[in-house]
């Protein structure tokens, strides 16, 4: 072979049959027309739906401020005479909201801990009972706490009791699902060791399961309590008592400066509860501060 051939090799000849063979073997490398058409159709539908949403929900109303809206937003930041405000009613409603959330979450956590063992695969071998309990939990969890509040307001009347019951039912359904998953993920060796010592099923749960799921139990219960405080605020709007009733009364009366004051107090309360729950979680679980 000459030096000229080595320096300038001839290009490899690619025929149409070679391209067809490569296209058949590696269709994605040449672009799949069917996937491209499907992707283009999905993008067209998504963009069309977005444009329809802007037209259907009339977002242009956000820029049409009338006199009432202007006064409302101005009173949010410019407060009037604060000496005549009902501070006792505001803080009593806030205390009711925290009590509703605490009691509802406490009852829901206790019930969830009992129900979770019937929904876990490793503690309830009977599939009929296990699936029946899980479907029951789906029912509790699938209905929003606001709907449960309307049901219990109708059943027991206006007041914080309806809020406690709605939070209890809602949290019991959610926490039971989460607790059952934690029970299914426990270390079997510890449980087998407890059983090998001759422990009864009740003692196996006490000394085998509970020590392992206690950190999850505490963490989820604290998070549920924080969430329930926010939920209890909304429940008061439908007649379940608490700060929500105070808030909606101020809205209806047009006292928007007091509405802003109530909202600020709710935010402060949520921040403090979040900080306290973090301290409690670190104490019982052993988390180190960052």
What this model shows, in words?
Pfam families: BPD_transp_1. The protein contains 12 helices and no strands. By secondary structure, the protein is mostly helical. It starts with a helix and ends in a 5-residue tail after the last helix.
Gist?
The protein has helices spanning 3-7, 16-25, 33-56, 67-77, 87-119, 127-142, 145-156, 160-184, 188-196, 201-235, 243-253, 256-285. With 290 residues, the protein is an all-alpha fold.
User: What is the number of strand segments?
Assistant: 0
Largest sheet: none
Structural class: mainly alpha
Helix content: over 70%
What is the highest CATH level, the class of the domain at 89-285?
A: Mainly Alpha
Radius of gyration: 31 Å
List segments where confidence is low: pLDDT < 50 over at least 5 consecutive residues.
Answer: none
Taken in chain order, the helices and strands follow as HHHHHHHHHHHH
Large-scale geometry: flat
Our estimate of the beta-strand percent is: under 5%
CATH homologous superfamily grouping of the domain at 89-285: MetI-like
CATH architecture descriptor name of the domain at 89-285: Orthogonal Bundle
Looking at CATH, which topology of the domain at 89-285 would you report? MetI-like fold
- In round numbers, the mean pLDDT is 80
Count of runs of 4 or more consecutive helical residues = 12
Determine the N-to-C terminus distance.
Answer: 71 Å
